[in-house]
Amino acid sequence: MAKAIVFISLIFLPISVAAQELPSPAFLNSVSPDSMWRHLEILGSDSLQGRGTGSPGIRKAANYISSRLRKYGIPPADAVGSYFQRVPMHGSMPLADSKLVCMTSDTSVSLLLQKDYLLYKTGAQTIIPQPLPLVFVGYGIIAPEYDYNDYQSLDIEGKIVVFLSGEPPSSDPAFFNAEEPTIYSYPESKHRIAISRGARGSIMIPLARDANSRTWPEWIMTFSFEDITLAYAVSSNLSIVINPEIADLFFENSGYSLSQVLEMDVNHRMRSFSLVTRISFRGEFIERDFQDANVIGMKKGRSDRAVILSAHYDHLGIGPPVRGDSIYNGVNDNATGVAALLEIARIFSEIPAPYNSLVFLFTSGEEKGLLGATYYVDHPVVPLYRTIANINIDGLAIFDQFETVVGVGADLSTLGQELERTAALSGLDVSPIPSRFLATESFARSDQIAFAKAGVPSILIAEGLDYKNISSDQGLRLMTHWMDTIYHTPFDDLSQPLNMKAATQHCRFIFTYSHLLAQLKDYPEWKPGTPFINARLLSFAEKR
Amino acid sequence: MTMNRLIRLFLLLVSILMFQQCATSHFMNTGTIRIKGSDTMRILTERWAEEYMKVQPNVAVYAEGGETGHGIQALIDGSADICAASRPLRANEIHLLAQRYKKLGILFLVAKDALSVYVNPGNNVNDLSSEQLKGIFTGELSNWNKVGGSDAGIRVIIRSPNSGTYLYFKEHILDGVEYTNDAIASPTTNEVVQRVEENPHAIGYGGIAYGPDITHCRIDGVLPTEANVRNDTYPIIRYLYLYTIDTPQGVIKDFIDWVLNDGQDVVKKVGYIPLWNDGD
Questions:
Q1: What's the pTM value of the predicted model, to 2 decimals?
Q2: Rounded CA gap, A260 and A257, in Å?
Q3: Which of A478, B129, B171, B258 lies 20 to 30 Å from A221 when distance is taken between CA atoms?
Q4: ipTM score for this prediction
Q5: How does pLDDT run along chain B (280 residues), one tens digit per residue?
Q6: What are phi and psi of A362, to 5 degrees?
Q7: Which of A139, A145, A147 should be substituted to probe chain B, the one whose Cβ sees the most B Cβ atoms within 10 Å?
């Protein structure tokens, strides 16, 4: 009898595993270009006014999403009690009356907001009533793993540090990841290092050769939207981006000009030194406090663990007009992702409870610095130590149906192995991230990084550059053109060409992947050497 | 098999499992350990934290950099349990500890850090004194014939000024005197090695594990081997330390004991010298 049971198990095991992994085609086929479009034409319409964080438009979007979840029979999470997880936020907009005064040894110059400088951080903590000395700190980086420290033997307590954007140029993968930027290149990282060392503020000089380089008008454009933070954000101090054309003011009488500093860098002799120039700052702001919502639905599983599927539903809202259009609709950033997540929730509502629960998380404030996702990891509906993975959706394939997929973050954890399995089940291949889209940069650009920093293995799945009807070159050209001319402009709207068959294929793929993770009994793990392992172990140790 | 026997077997299995659970939990620690201090040691303390949490999954270990001085301050103000230090405590820091806690601090030696001096394999000079090294890197000695070599200018390769290795060599070998202006700066040890490999007249410095296409110089007659670092005959070394206010107890004690045993493997993996080898 026992032998017979083993034999029968052997016969049925592969079938039952395959059945678990492959959802019925009928469910997959229920996602169609039409079903996707029905969400898009509402979420991407002008009536939602670009779903800006803290705007009436985003509230309409939240109501639409919750109404769909209710219709599909996906209930709110017990921990919240409604579909809306309230996220307290604070908005601040600097005014032209703000006074930044720069005192060199022989003159005093008032600098003008926008023309000469921008405020990276705003608010009450940014005020410097008495002139404070400046210290130049190279790139403003402390990275012991690269034996690099711009603050070595330097006292910056109570002073304002001046640093260059980006990070030391390198062609060595073992030193700042060669050409690919590391987390140290982000202004936020540098500002945090500065204030944790006791600096009263920081000034960044943006360099044209930096991987994230923008022209000064592009910097102005980026900063023309309201600065929004979580109401309980990390303390901050004055943080300025200076127009590089006037940056030499800071170096007056210091013994070096900016061009000499850059020359030092070329010779790997960058050093930090005190400057003679001092600055004071008195900011004028319009401020407001409000609550936006993360919209959350949950499909309960058989275990106490969960997989989080996330998509941000905010975009930039109303902004500077471009060719007469001031509504930044954000159709592929990220109305498409929201449409996909709604469709995935609908399918899960129609199938039996999987092993792991599924949390459908629609975040707000992503464009303002991943605020909704950051709030969520601080207030999870399933504790993070029982949250096995995050699949984030930010934009879908809109050019053509695809034959390969890319896992952003797949190389960091065992989630990459599950991606390979899903691709095999879907008749696709997994390809590496195209070099134009730097891997570290891509991983840090959306909500998945908030989960990673909290220790939860996360991934974002994009299409590769191998298409059904167009060549890879054509695909790359379309993608590059989209990034350069449509992304974060009012033209990411419903009038742009959108290949809904491609978007549908993308949605079905993510569903298949989610379905596989929903059955997973083992915890996905970070690979050795990734920076998120400690956060994961801490959340396990503290059961949070 | 009768039902009774099945039940007895089941109960036996349950009791074995429960015993194992109790036996395991007896050795399981819980709690939080906060380590602050030296940037040089951050990479080491972070890896210790990671590996220790894997063996003690109910202990949360927070490891932060900063600098040795900040770590000691954190120890004094109670915001850290352990200070990671790449130098001994200064008199004023011990004074502060004594004032606040009536203790002088407990020092644990946890690893060694050493620097090797590289020359090209074609160079017949492979033994230098500390004084000669100082002369070469400050520019006082600029020809190999001054140190027993051929008549050729010395090409000095140093690390970039923002590297800890740059500072360490300057403080320990040059006694704080500036490097020669003619030195070529390299952002990484790999690049130092490459320059020394390519130039028969070059001299540089870096970790003792680099090679094999460079010659590691004897310093004061001693080769930079792990054994010579450990037996304290090689001159360019420093200790790395953990400090606590008083003799540690509980989970802190267990962590430091682990650092001095299994944690020594991590020391080697991140490029420092363990205090002892297995079997020492």
A1: 0.83
A2: 5
A3: A478
A4: 0.73
A5: 445 555 555 555 544 444 444 334 445 788 999 999 888 788 899 999 999 999 999 999 999 887 788 899 999 999 999 999 988 888 999 999 999 999 899 999 999 989 999 999 999 999 999 999 999 999 999 999 999 999 999 999 999 998 888 999 999 899 999 999 999 999 998 899 999 999 999 999 998 888 789 999 999 999 999 999 988 899 999 899 999 999 999 999 999 999 999 999 999 998 899 998 765 5
A6: -105, 110
A7: A147
DSSP-assigned beta bridge partners for residue A273: A136
Length of chain B: 280
How close, in Å, is residue A414 to chain B by CA atoms?
17
| Contact list, B50 vs chain A (CB under 8 Å) | 533-534, 537
Torsion-angle region of A283 (φ positive above 0: left; ψ -120 to 50: alpha; else: beta): beta
Within 10 Å of residue A10's Cβ, how many Cβ atoms? Answer: 9
Strand partners, A281: A100, A128
Could you tell me whether strands A99-103 and A273-282 are parallel, antiparallel, or unpaired per DSSP bridges?
Answer: antiparallel
Among A188, A195, A206, smallest CA distance to A370 is for A188
CB B185 to CB A269 under 8 A? yes
Cβ-defined contact of B162 to A542 (cutoff 8 Å): no
- Alpha carbons A310 and A338: distance in angstroms, whole number: 8
Helix axes B91-101, B68-77, angle to 10 degrees: 10
Do residue A148 and residue B162 have CB atoms under 8 angstroms apart?
A: yes
- Residue A188 distance to chain B (closest CA, Å): 17
Who's near A18: CB < 8 A, 6+ residues apart? none
DSSP state of A509: H
pLDDT tens, residue by residue, A158-180: 999 999 999 998 989 889 988 88
From chain A, the residues in CB contact with B49 under 8 A are 534, 537
Q: Which residues of B139-160 are buried (b: 16+ CB within 10 A; e: fewer)?
A: bebeebeebebeeeebbbbbbb
Inter-chain touch A267–B186, beta carbons under 8 Å: no
- How many residues in chain A? 544
Contact B60 A534 (CB under 8 A): no
